[in-house]
Amino acid sequence: MSIYEKWKEIAFEERDEASANKFWKDYCEIEKGIYEAILHNKEEIIQGSIKELADKYKVEPTYFMGFLDGINESIYETIQLEELTEISTIDLRIDFEKLYYNMHEAKAHWLYNLQEWDNILTEDRRKEIKKEYNLSKTVVREIKIGRNEPCICGSEKKYKKCCGK
């Protein structure tokens, strides 16, 4: 069983609601610690084996795989998580703006509110990214053509008699 499969098994095993809440609360604290270290040190590039990196961030390799699962969409070149073992070497280059955006997407307020972001992105840039995220979730209604308005094809007929049939 790959380390990624172990992560999925641990993360998504059937539990009662209280156990699930405890698991995710504990995992979010672990994840927060990893991000605090990365942001504090402005680590744009993360290199090493899964085991070495898990030791560096003081987590189990399986939980480090959970971190990789979460950050995989915020790096310049995604990695095939299913193929990784503890001795696999990875070379991640983090896109911090995309990461900040994706943290909003995941509603991970415990991550996008970290004070360590001050070292990475200006407050104005963080506000812009949040605004971009909010705009991406805004539904824009298309302009509705009335039945009796001129047809959009330019035929000068009413829409209901032309393209609206």
From TrEMBL:
**Which InterPro entries does the protein's record reference?**
SEC_C_motif
- SUPFAM superfamilies recorded for this chain? Sec-C motif
Please name the Pfam families in this protein's record.
SEC-C (PF02810)
> Domain of life here?
Bacteria
Q: Which protein, by its recorded name, is this?
A: SEC-C domain-containing protein
Source organism per entry reads Alkaliphilus pronyensis
